[in-house]
Amino acid sequence: MQPWGAMEGVRPSKQLHRLLDAGKNYSEAFAFMQRHYGISQEKFALLWQVCQVERPFLLESSQPHLFSVYVGIPFCPTRCLYCSFPSHPLTELNKFREKFVEKLLFEIKATGQMTQHLQMTPYTVYLGGGTPTSLEPEELAAVIDALKEAFPGTWREFTVEAGRPDTITPAHVKIFKSKDVTRTSVNPQSMHAETLKTIGRRHSVEEIQQAVKYVREAKIPVLNMDLILGLPGENAGMIAASVKQLLNFAPENITLHIFSPKRASRYYQNQSSYLLPPDEEIVEMQKQALALLTPHYRPYYLYRQRNILAGLENIGLCTPGHECIYNIVMIEERHHILGLGGGATSKIINQDFTLTNLFSPKDVRIYLQRVEALLERREKALLKALQNV
Ligand code: SF4
Questions:
Q1: What is the pTM of this model?
Q2: 247 — phi, psi (to 5°)?
C-alpha cells in the first residue's frame, strides 16, 4: 500500500492546514484523511508534526501587505544527472552571464519601486537557482546590494543558496558575511565519491568539507545540507554513512530528498544506463536516516513530487528555532512570492485565496527579451490581489 494513499498533490500539508483552520483535532483530522485518501498512520503523524511547527509562521506571514522575494540565478558549473531545474551549465551559456546580471538588476529595481509604491513590506529574501555562487563574487555583491536598496527593511530571513561546493570560494562567503546573509546551503547530495561522479557533480568529498569550513568560519547563522536518497548505486548503509558525516558538520538544516526522475533530466533520457535501488531499500534508507537525525532535528516542512520513488516525500529538518521560513511559505501558498530572474515563479494570493502563478522564462536568452512584459504582468496581478485590502 502507498504510504500517502490516494493523495496525489505535492503539498499534503495544505490539506491538513485546512482541517486545522476548521478547528479539527488530531483524531478528527486523521479520520478525515484516512477516509478520503487512505493516508497511513505513520505519514499522518509526520504531517501533523510538520503542520504544528509551520502554524505560527503561516499566521505571521499571511498578511496581504507582506511578500517574499525569490531570485533565480539560472547557471551551474555542470548539469547534474537528475536536474530538471531552469539552469544552464556555465560551459555553454557563460557568455550571457553579464547580460543576465544587468537585466536582473533592472528587474529588482523596478519591482522594488512597485512594492514601495504599493506600501508592501518585504518578509524573506531567497537567492536560489541554479547556483547563485556561479556568479563572480562582485556580481553576487551587486545583486544583494540591489535587493537591499529595492526592498528596504528588516528581512525575517535572507538565504543565499551556495549549493554546489565547487562554486563556493572564501570571497563568496566573505560577501555572505558582510551582507548579513542569515542562511546558506552546501549540498553534497551524497558523501560518496563514486556517486558524485555518477550524478555529474564533478566535485570531491574534500571540496564539500572545505566549503562547510568556509561557511562555519564566517559564522553564517544557518547552514543547510541536502542529501538525495535513492541515487543509482546507493544502499541504506551508504545513506547512513552520509548522514553520519553530515552530523559531524552539525548543520542547522538537513533536507532529505527522495530521488524523483524528471522528464527534463539527463537521467530520464538514459534510464537504462543506471540501476536505481528497489523501493524497499529506499524506504529503509529514509527510516535509517530519520532514526539518526530525529534525536537532534525535527521535521518542519515536507512536499512530494510526481514520480517520487517509493511514493515517499522530501523532508526538511532543522534544529529547533532554525526553520527556513521561506520554504514554509513557498510550500503552503498563503503568502505573496515575487519570483525574479531566470525560471522563477511568482505566486500572488488573491482575495478569495486563489493563486495567480506567473512563470519567468527558463531560458536565459528568452528572459533577457521578456523582463519588461513580466514586470507588467506581475504588477497587474498584485494590484488585482490587493484591491479592497
Ligand atoms: S546544482 Fe541544482 S540546479 Fe544546478 S544542475 Fe545540479 S540540480 Fe540542477
A1: 0.95
A2: -60, -30
Q: Is the CB of 79 under 6 A from ligand 1?
A: yes
Ligand 1 neighbourhood includes 336 CB (under 6 angstroms): no
Contact 49, 9 (CB under 8 A): no
DSSP class of residue 133 equals G
Residue ranges covered by each domain of the chain: 12-57, 62-386
Select from 81, 83, 190, 199 the residue to mutate for testing ligand 1; criterion: most ligand atoms less than 8 Å from CB: 83
Q: Which atom of ligand 1 is nearest to the CA of 164?
A: 1
Over residues 274-306, the pLDDT tens digits come to 999 999 999 999 999 999 999 999 999 999 998
Which superfamily does 62-386 belong to?
tm_1862 like domain (3.80.30.20)
End-to-end CA distance of the chain: 46
Cβ distance 346 to 358 under 8 Å?
Answer: yes
φ, ψ of residue 230 to 5 degrees: the values are: 105, 15
Ligand 1 atom 2: the closest Cα is on which residue?
Answer: 130
